[in-house]
């Protein structure tokens, strides 16, 4: 995945909480957007988003929503991140870095 990025962005491995580079920041944001949509969709049809099969049952974890988004992560968040970087929609200056929060998107980038 890392070899597909151009324009000075690099991706070595997936890091989260906090993301250590702009690509991981974009991926985390995309995954959370898909996750929230999955939770809403499951709740709207009456499914319990906490009872999943692939992800273990933990208190407060929407395991079924996490199970559901596994199929959509590569074709939505991963692909969108790759396109945003390679088409120059985002640049290195669209991110800020702090020790406690890692790499974060600026407000304008998030919009």
Description of the molecule:
The chain is mainly alpha-helical and about 110 residues long. About 40% of the residues lie in helices and about 5% in strands. The chain contains four helices and two strands; from the N terminus they run αααββα. The protein has helices at about 20-45, 65-70, 75-85, 105-110; strands at about 95-100, 100-105. The protein has a two-stranded antiparallel ribbon. The longest helix has 23 residues, at about 20-45. The protein starts with about 20 loop residues before the first helix and ends with a helix.
Q: What labels describe this entry?
A:
mainly alpha; 111 residues; 4 helices
Architecture blueprint of SSEs:
Blueprint: H1 22-44, H2 63-69, H3 74-86, E1 95-98, E2 102-105, H4 107-110
Antiparallel strand pairs: 1-2
Counting H and I runs of at least 4 residues, what is the number of helices? 4
Radius of gyration: 15 Å
First-last Cα distance:
25 Å
Structure classification: mainly alpha
Amount of beta strand: 5-15%
State the total count of DSSP E strands.
2
Unreliable spans are: none
Largest sheet: 2 strands, antiparallel
Q: Strand-and-helix sequence, N→C?
A: HHHEEH
Specify the overall morphology.
elongated
The averaged pLDDT comes out at 81
Strand numbers in spatial order across the main sheet: 1-2
Helix content range? 40-55%
